[in-house]
Amino acid sequence: MEKKTYNIYCDESCHIENDHKPYMFLGKISSPYNQVKLHTEKINEIKKKHNFFAEIKWTSVSKSKIHFYSDLVDYFFATDLRFRAIGVDKAKINCDEHSKSYDDFYYTMYYYLLNHNLNSLYTYNVYLDIKDTLSANKVNKLKEILNAKFGVFRNVQNIRSHESILMQLADFMMGAISYLHNNEEKINATKVQIIEKIKHHSSDALQKTNYSSKLNLFFIELR
Question: Could you write out the DSSP letters of every residue in the chain?
Fold first, then answer.
């Protein structure tokens, strides 16, 4: 009997070391492999309904697109799609103390993002948004590290966001969480409205670690 497979689409926000944002976030959207095509079709239907032809991304949330992004939030919460993010207080990152580079730390955080609630009876395909020209070597290393312990990651690779609508959804959800925590002066009323809608749907806290299976947040306490 063939194992059940999940696709996982990963993105990050405020991960640059010196960007003057207090929190770094890594996030993922997960979907059963056999549902990816369905979700893609349904989200494309929502795009068509609203005459929205661009990439889905948090930075494009605006007053003129509020109804599209509002429907997108509704869709996420009505489906079996799941989102998880880990947050890190960047002021507490001390790579020198542990003889690691910032990139090493970055991929260690990906390890923590991806090792949550794994099922040894399933296999997983992981897709990361391309970060730089060295990304291919880094994801190969990440796959080795993950499979040394878990052995369930069939594929870990970089893709570009335009190649996957679920990767774009990960960007959107990740952006909302990051905006909530990193922008004290929340001057974009439309983005605030979208965040309030996410809060309304979610019965779990978005300001701290929660234990939701739908929209899970975990803040790492660095020591």
Answer: -PPEEEEEEEEEES-STTSS-SEEEEEEEEEEGGGHHHHHHHHHHHHHHTT--S---GGG--GGGHHHHHHHHHHHHHSS-EEEEEEEEGGG--TGGGT--HHHHHHHHHHHHHTTT--TTEEEEEEEE--STTHHHHHHHHHHHHHHH---EEEEEEE-GGG-HHHHHHHHHHHHHHHHHH-SS---HHHHHHHHHHHHH-SS-SSS----SSEEEEEE---
